[in-house]
């Protein structure tokens, strides 16, 4: 590992943290947009050596102030992740990520730098120790430390292990003033982020908590890279993985598979599965650690109260003379303990299976609040039946796909192999079954990639050529989708098979609120001209209301041909509203939607291709009906009108997209 000297900010190598005789400090922080790297600090050292300067006075403010604070606390060395890891070396980066929990745990002190918290916002109503001695309730502490608890620092994935691992942790403000320690704020942190106070005070090891409980501490934290959702948890679970940036969410699946191999704790599968697609929630493995957020408690049904976390509590093996029931339940041919093995089709599990009135349950030795909890299963209709002779199940989720568990009756005796479910006593049988571990693979559409967060936009084949009549590229489509999203709209490309065979339409974009048609007029061509690039003057476009849309209705050449629009731009509008009474005057409440179609020569082929951009806006106004006389339009029976004559009744034209260009009704 590399450490910075606090007096000069020089980098020095050490074999391991234990080799730092006088100990070292560590910094936990949220990365800024620009951070000085290992190479930057080395270049500063070389330049300062020539100029006779102290590198600490030249490095960025964060590194300098951290070195100064650590030095004032008696430390000669400090570890900062931004500049103490040579990220140009993949081997060193992988070693650092797998060792980072140890780096923080062995640091003599760790500073949690909260760049968004000012020391002046922290109340001076006594020190934290005074508050504790006076037994002031949490409300006063919460008020005093609300700025700390609301810092963005608590929303980053990497800071979780940086909070748990160190023995002595200081929160410092944006001006590097010491504010508090994690031990002082332990109760507040447990209340706010569900991390046990005993863990933060090092009264109990974090390893004493179940897998699902430790996963739940991740909460709603975010990481810049998806892979880091798994990598930032390695130290908390004592797992070592090869880092493969570019694998996306597969990293978290690899972490879960490693936990299966290392631990018998089956709460790895106890994630609720709320608010995710059924294909994902019915799988045994979770897609991300955020899915465990609610594992600090569970609500088995709407009518029952919240229950404590699900724990892994395997049955205790007793002597034959003390419990003959267990002997009858245990087999004589094969040891009865739960096992899991990974296969391409799923996880092969050997475990107790319970069947009651066609419903299937699995006993993974879970308890919650003193009651046993079973995992709900069902046959997977998409299973490859030919792949294995074993039964193939998936997780059976309830309302909103969660949580997939069932709590046994209060009068359940807790005897192995005997279960009281909904007033009936049933027994289990040990079986080998396959359980779906991830969403079933599906056929991707052309150009579609897995593990992509943005909506997939299918390619339009005609627009992939060198010089099509027009292009509507993905960047412009995504911009339009962002504008439509608050109003319930989106963008879908209609299948060309739905158009008439003799249609001159090139593409139709269904935006739910309206449709956009783009075509190439066939009028004016010579009989022998079959080229799609005869003239840009033949490209036409229009926006139409979604209700009553009919692609068979032909376009209007004078109105729809793009080259006839000033600056190749046109605004299409819709007025919608209903009657109301406002200030004793009859009024109409209107919403005005404006769709602006803008074309420009495509940079790739400016003489033969037009590039399309679309903007959408929606404005709301209350329009007195008495003003109809001033406009000369009866806007009551027909709200879909050319709005040019009544523009004064809404915002000024300068506020609307496409101002100064022609408008048309949808």
TrEMBL record:
It holds the Pfam family DUF8212. Residues 251-358 form the DUF8212 domain. InterPro entries: DUF8212, HET. Residues 24-162 form the Heterokaryon incompatibility domain. It comes from the Eukaryota. This is HET-domain-containing protein. The lineage of its organism: Eukaryota, Fungi, Dikarya, Basidiomycota, Agaricomycotina.
């Amino acid at each position: 590992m590399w450490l910075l000297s606090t007096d000069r900010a020089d980098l020095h190598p050490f074999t391991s943290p234990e080799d730092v005789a006088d100990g070292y400090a560590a910094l936990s922080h949220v990365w800024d947009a620009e951070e000085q790297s290992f190479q930057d600090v080395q270049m500063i050292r070389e330049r300062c050596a020539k100029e006779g300067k102290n590198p600490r006075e030249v490095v960025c403010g964060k590194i300098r102030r951290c070195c100064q604070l650590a030095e004032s606390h008696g430390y000669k060395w400090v570890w900062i992740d931004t500049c103490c890891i040579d990220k140009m070396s993949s081997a060193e980066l992988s070693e650092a990520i797998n060792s980072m929990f140890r780096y923080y745990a062995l640091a003599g002190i760790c500073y949690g730098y909260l760049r968004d918290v000012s020391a002046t916002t922290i109340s001076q109503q006594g020190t934290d120790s005074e508050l504790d001695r006076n037994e002031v309730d949490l409300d006063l502490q919460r008020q005093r430390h609300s700025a700390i608890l609301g810092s963005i620092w608590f929303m980053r994935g990497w800071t979780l292990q940086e909070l748990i691992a160190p023995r002595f942790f200081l929160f410092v403000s944006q001006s590097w003033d010491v504010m508090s320690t994690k031990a002082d704020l332990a109760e507040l942190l447990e209340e706010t982020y569900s991390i046990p106070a005993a863990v933060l005070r090092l009264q109990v090891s974090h390893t004493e908590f179940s897998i699902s409980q430790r996963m739940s501490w991740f909460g709603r934290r975010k990481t810049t890279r998806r892979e880091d959702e798994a990598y930032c948890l390695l130290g908390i679970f004592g797992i070592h993985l090869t880092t493969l940036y570019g694998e996306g969410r597969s990293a978290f699946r690899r972490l879960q598979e490693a936990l299966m191999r290392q631990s018998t704790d089956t709460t790895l599968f106890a994630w609720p599965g709320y608010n995710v697609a059924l294909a994902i929630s019915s799988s045994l493995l979770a897609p991300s650690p955020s899915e465990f957020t609610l594992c600090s408690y569970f609500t088995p049904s709407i009518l029952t109260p919240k229950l404590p976390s699900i724990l892994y509590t395997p049955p205790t093996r007793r002597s034959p003379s003390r419990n003959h029931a267990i002997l009858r339940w245990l087999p004589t041919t094969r040891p009865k303990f739960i096992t899991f093995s990974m296969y391409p089709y799923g996880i092969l599990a050997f475990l107790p299976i319970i069947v009651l009135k066609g419903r299937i349950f699995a006993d993974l030795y879970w308890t919650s609040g003193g009651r046993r909890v079973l995992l709900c299963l069902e046959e997977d209709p998409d299973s490859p039946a030919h792949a294995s002779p074993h039964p193939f199940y998936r997780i059976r989720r309830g309302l909103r796909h969660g949580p997939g568990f069932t709590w046994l009756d209060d009068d359940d005796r807790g005897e192995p192999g005997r279960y009281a479910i909904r007033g009936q006593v049933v027994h289990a049988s040990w079986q080998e079954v396959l359980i779906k571990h991830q969403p079933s693979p599906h056929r991707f559409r052309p150009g579609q990639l897995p593990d992509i967060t943005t909506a997939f936009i299918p390619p339009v084949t005609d627009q992939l050529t060198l010089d099509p009549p027009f292009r509507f590229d993905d960047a412009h489509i995504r911009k339009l989708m962002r504008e439509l999203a608050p109003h319930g709209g989106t963008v879908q490309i209609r299948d060309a098979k739905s158009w008439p065979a003799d249609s001159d339409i090139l593409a139709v974009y269904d935006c739910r609120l309206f449709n956009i048609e783009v075509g190439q007029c066939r009028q004016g061509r010579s009989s022998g001209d079959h080229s799609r690039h005869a003239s840009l003057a033949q490209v036409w476009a229009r926006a139409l209301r979604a209700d009553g849309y009919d692609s068979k209705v032909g376009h209007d050449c004078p109105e729809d041909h793009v080259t006839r629009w000033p600056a190749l731009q046109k605004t299409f509008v819709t007025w919608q509203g209903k009657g109301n009474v406002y200030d004793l005057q009859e009024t109409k409440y209107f919403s005005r939607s404006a769709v602006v179609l803008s074309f420009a020569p495509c940079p790739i082929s400016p003489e033969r291709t037009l590039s399309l951009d679309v903007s959408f806006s929606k404005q709301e106004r209350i329009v007195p009906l008495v003003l109809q006389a001033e406009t000369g339009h009866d806007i009551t029976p027909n709200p879909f009108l050319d709005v040019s004559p009544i523009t004064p009744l809404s915002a000024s034209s300068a506020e609307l997209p496409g101002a100064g260009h022609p408008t048309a009704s949808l």
